[in-house]
Design a protein that fits this description.
The complex is a heterodimer of chains A (130) and B (65). Chain A is mainly α and 130 residues long. Chain A folds into two domains: 62 residues; 67 residues. Chain B is mainly alpha-helical and 65 residues long. Chain B has two helices and no strands. In chain B, helix 1 packs antiparallel against helix 2. Chain B is elongated. The model of chain B has no long low-confidence stretch (mean pLDDT 92). Classes of the chains: A mainly alpha (130), B mainly alpha (65). Chains A and B meet through helix 1, helix 2 and helix 3 of A and helix 1 and helix 2 of B.
């Protein structure tokens, strides 16, 4: 049922943005940013609930909680980078948007490197200490 | 789902737009410029506050310390 509220808010804000773009383009940007923040905050509450469930499961069965934490860290970085990049692209600054995305990717790769190395060590162990 | 922030920004935006048009018509372009600037500063302060709380929540939930 919440999805109707979200769609309604988006369309409401859309009307406001189109109206403001004619007179005050910078205000239209702020309005779209504010709407983006509200919708992302709502998505965050859902993601928080999912994360609690997943942590409960990994904790109970002793699965790789380290990997799960890394996945969520990467997800958070992508989440924030995408928020900023879309805001820049929406304002017409696709150059800045691509820079933000590039930095986001680099940081995600940097965060994921230890996991890759641990997998490689595991493999070399399996293959008999190559 | 607090849409109050969105309505507040839309209201301030429209108010500033009308004020600027009015001031432009009466020939006071500099005051119109100042009004637009003040409106932008106020709205930016609100939006940045909201973005700050959003990023703080992201940091807490995704443990991005």
């Amino acid at each position: 049922m919440e999805i109707f509220k979200i769609a309604g808010l988006a369309v409401l804000a859309l009307g406001g943005v189109i109206l403001l773009r004619a007179y005050r383009p910078e205000m239209a940007l702020q309005l779209s940013l504010g709407t983006g923040v509200v919708l992302f905050a709502y998505a965050l509450t859902e993601i928080g609930a999912v994360q609690q469930v997943i942590e409960g499961i990994t904790g109970r069965y002793g699965l790789g909680s380290q990997q799960i934490k890394l996945i969520f860290k990467v997800f958070g970085m992508a989440y924030v980078a995408q928020f900023a990049a879309e805001a820049c692209r929406d304002a017409g600054e696709s150059a800045i948007a691509s820079k933000v995305e590039l930095v986001g990717r680099v940081m995600i790769v940097a965060a994921a490197l230890p996991a890759v190395f641990s997998v490689l060590d595991l493999l070399s162990g399996l293959l008999g200490g190559v | 789902m607090e849409i109050e922030i969105v309505l507040k920004i839309a209201g301030i935006g429209m108010l500033v737009a009308v004020a600027c048009q009015l001031l432009k018509q009466t020939g006071r372009d500099d005051i119109a410029m100042l009004a637009a600037l003040m409106g932008l500063v106020i709205v930016l302060g609100m939006v940045l506050g909201e973005i700050g709380t959003l990023f703080e929540q992201v940091r807490r939930i995704f443990s991005l310390y």
